[in-house]
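Lecture 7 notes: from sequence to structure.

We start with a single chain of 267 residues. Read the sequence below before looking at the structure.
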Amino acid sequence: MGKRSIYLKSAADAAIIKANGQILGKAHAEVAKHLDEGVTTQSLDVIAEEFIRDNGGVPSFKGYGGFPASLCISVNEVVVHGFPGERVLKSGDIISIDCGVYKDGFHADSAYTYMIGEVASDIQDLLKSTKESLYRGIEKVKPGNRIGDLSYAIQSYNEERGYGIVRELVGHGVGKSLHEAPEVANFGKRGNGPRMKEGMVIAIEPMVTLGKRFVVQEQDGWTIRTEDRSAAAHYEHTVLVTKDGNEILTTFEYIEEVLEQKKMLFV
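Now the structure, written as tokens:
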């Protein structure tokens, strides 16, 4: 089989993805308003789906490959692809929420890891490192650089701090399909991988563990957790390669306004 094609986006395409990124950021913020001890993860899924549909979008994940929900909700040792359900959040939990919006022919995709109540300082440090590494990766996004440049930036930043980088799961191109070429790994070598070109849109999503990097898949065929059951963090932005650099098409602005009000923001 040949390599999958990388589809470059026009300015109009990118504008649609960015508009979807606004809906997505606000959907995350609606969920963040309801994050608290005693809340079920299923209730959060309902909030997100209603908000996205009320704004003319469709949840990208619902029905994707048979996935049953609008949000991937991954608590503590679950890295990604956790199902919403009857689980009740408690103080000390961290919860990664990954969501996508499809509207006007294009997807936007982003994830954020939230803290519930009093979270241990070593886990807070993991979240800080993971989030910072996302931006270290984004700094490397510009025409002429290679995917490996951003992969290396994410890996080195976290490994210098003693964290594990999940290797089995990667970021990806985003556009008319939720997952397009190229794959965007969170580990790699500078100078390797596809060359970035103006119009590429990629989802960059570091997945980082407090313990070892190894993961296992649960019996449900979706849920991925750390093998040693250490905590895992996950942040994601959809990013456009521009003529002379990059533009982040998704946003954490609305999320962090809510978290600041609730005193749930660590930075």
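The radius of gyration is 17 Å. Keep this in mind for problem set 3.
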